[in-house]
Structures are given as C-alpha cells and as structure tokens.
Design goal:
By secondary structure, the chain is of the alpha+beta class. It has two domains: 3-233, P-loop containing nucleotide triphosphate hydrolases (Rossmann fold, 3-Layer(aba) Sandwich); 239-352, OB fold (Dihydrolipoamide Acetyltransferase, E2P) (Beta Barrel). The protein has helices spanning 43-51, 93-103, 108-122, 137-149, 167-184, 195-201, 219-224, 229-234, and strands spanning 3-14, 17-28, 32-36, 58-63, 66-67, 78-81, 155-159, 187-192, 204-209, 212-217, 241-248, 251-254, 257-260, 273-280, 286-287, 296-307, 311-318, 321-328, 338-343, 349-352. It is globular.
Length: 359
C-alpha cells in the first residue's frame, strides 16, 4: 500500500523542551487521519511540521515519496485550513479564493475554473461577491476550506477548523467535510481535541499525549480495544468506569465480587496475580429486562440522575465505588433507588495497574 505522507523518527525541541520525540507515522493514500488529544499533546505541532511552518530538530518528512523535510510550505503540495479563518477582509470571497492562484501566475481562465469548481463543491456560489464581514462563521469556514481546495493539492491539513463554531454548525460542517472527503478522495490530516469529530470523520485516529502517539487505529479499534488507560479514559463521553482490583486465575476481583474475564488469560513471563484496573463503558451496562440475559448481575445505589433527552446518565455506587450508567432517555429513575444492572465482561477492558497497558 502506498503512503501519501511518511514521518520518520521526527524530533522537535524548543531549547531543552522536547515536544516531539522519534515520532513515526505513515498515512495512506486518500486516508482521512485524525490527530486527537488534549491541549499541549503535540498534535498541532506535528501538523505544522508537516506543513513546513516549524523547522524540525531531527527526522524526515516525505510527501508523495519526496523528502520535504527542509522544503518551503509552498513546495510541499499541501493545502492548509486554520482554526482562525484568516481571510482578507477587504477582498470578496472570489478574491480570497483566487488570491493565491494569481500570485502563482496561473492563467485567468484556469483561475476562474478552479474558483467555480471549489464554490460548487462547497455550495458557496451565491457568496462569491460578498466580503467576509457579510458572512456567518460557517460561511467563512467554507471559504477558508475553498481557499485550500482551489490549489488542487494531494494533501489537505486541517487545524481544528470547526472549534470556533457553535454546536449545531459544527455538526453540519462535520457532515460536509466527510462528504467532501468521500467526493475528492484526497489525503486529509485533521487535528482536533473533540473525540466526536475524530470518531465520525476518521479512517484512522492517532491519539497523542506528550508528543507521542499512544494508539493508532480505526475508530472501532480505539473505542473497543484501547491500548492503555489514557486512551480508554480519553475516548468516550462520559469516559469509562474504572475499578481497581486484582486479576488472578482468569478473574478480576474487587471487594467481594469476582468477574470472570473472557479472553484474558495468563501470558508467559507475566505475573498470574497482579493489581489491575477494569474499564466498563457506561453505555455497555444494561438495565431493565436485559439484566436477566447478562453474564454478571449487580445492584447499584443511584446518587444522581442527569436527563439528556436522547439518553439519561446515572451516577451510582457499585459497592463503595462510583459508577456511571447510560440509559435510554425515556427511563424513569430517581436518586436513592436501588437499580439492577447487568455487565458483559467480554465488552470490558482490563489494564495492568503498574504499566497502565491493556492486558
């Protein structure tokens, strides 16, 4: 399989502060890859290195098979969309879209063709003669995307392009970005701290922390088989329930409860009895009529109920441990009630407490 972008042993340091360390990442041709992580994890820094906006300390960056580690941004065959729209306020939308092409001295007919094509794809034909001040936030972001689109490049870089928009507009533009990728099939690298954006847009997600990639995989892999406690905690809203106990003889034991762990067995060279952490997603806990079919059944004490419309979030106590449950929005539960729940250990994740890695 051919790679559109290859990052090899990339280092970046600001003085004594190491931001990226020996980072390796291969991005497939036509892939939508999301760099996901909290503020300060290095995701935007990595994107800026790919774009050529930051000079790396060591390592190499290849785009379409060419070593561009020291190439100027204009020579890398990339189009970038920033968090801020960065539009020229004195120019019309048409002027903003065509400005870079005019500087590149493209023929007038080709410029008009590219602008018309980008405007058609983004459905902004009616806005071409307006100035940015007369546009909404969503319209401005479409223009910013269009400015990258007219360059007709192989790789698009997005640095949190939706973070300045309101919630509904973010959803609308997220759908449009997905549709745009399906239509163009260009390689797209997208930075965000929003896990919903990552899960819905990505072919693969690179979850980052401290300048390193914690896990690289499909949304399904990241969600169902997190490699470590950090990824498990970061993905999911609300995040996993974590309970500390002992893993021994194929069972996770906590207080007076024993949970047989299907698929988790003793591995040669690893201790058979060790401190462990089990992770159970709130949406994987069943209630009501489904409890009778669950392999493990418990009763929790309800502390707090958060109705959220489409679903209801329950804060409860499992023994002495805090425990969250996501229920259907029509569920009627009150604080102080005892609630029967069911858990399928096959859907749980088990981590070694010392290393925090998945067992």
């Amino acid at each position: 399989m051919s790679y559109s972008v290859e990052i090899k042993k990339l280092d970046l340091a600001f003085g004594a502060v190491k931001v990226l360390q020996e980072l390796d990442l291969n991005i497939h041709e036509g892939e939508f890859l999301v760099l996901l992580g909290s503020s300060g994890c290095g995701k935007s820094t990595l994107l800026n290195c790919i774009a050529g906006l930051l000079e790396v300390t060591d390592g190499q960056i290849h785009i379409k098979g060419q070593n561009v580690t020291w190439a100027e941004p204009s020579e890398r065959g990339i189009g970038m969309v920033f968090q801020s729209y960065a539009l020229y306020p004195q120019m019309t939308v048409r002027g903003n879209l065509s400005f870079g092409l005019k500087n590149a001295k493209l023929p007038k007919a080709e410029i008009e063709e590219r602008v018309a094509r980008a405007a058609g794809i983004l459905q902004i034909e009616a806005l071409l003669d307006r100035k940015p001040g007369a546009l909404s936030g969503g319209q401005r972001q479409r223009v910013a995307i269009g400015r990258a689109l007219v360059r007709d490049v192989d790789v698009f870089l997005f640095d949190e392009p939706l973070s300045n928009l309101d919630a509904k507009l973010r959803v609308d533009l997220r759908v449009e970005l997905k549709r745009l990728h399906n239509q163009l099939q260009n390689t797209m690298i997208y930075v965000t701290h929003d896990q919903v954006e990552a899960m819905t847009l990505a072919d693969r997600i690179a979850v980052m922390k401290g300048g390193a990639i914690m896990q690289l995989g499909s949304p399904d892999e990241i969600y169902n088989r997190p490699r470590n406690l950090y990824v498990a905690d970061f993905i999911g809203s609300p995040s996993m329930n974590f309970l500390e106990g002992q893993f021994a003889d194929g069972s996770f034991r906590i207080d007076d409860m024993a949970m047989p762990m299907t698929g988790y067995e003793y591995v040669e060279g690893q201790p058979s009895n060790r401190a462990a952490v089990i992770g159970i997603r709130p949406e994987h806990v069943v209630t009501g009529e489904l409890v009778g079919n669950a392999p493990l059944q418990y009763t929790v004490d309800v502390d707090l109920v958060e109705p959220m419309g489409s679903d209801t979030l329950i804060y409860a106590k499992l023994g002495q441990h805090g425990f969250r449950i996501r229920m259907d929005g029509q569920a009627i539960v009150k604080a102080g009630e005892a609630l029967a729940i069911g858990i399928d250990p096959a859907r749980a994740s088990l981590f070694d407490k010392a290393s925090e890695n998945r067992i």
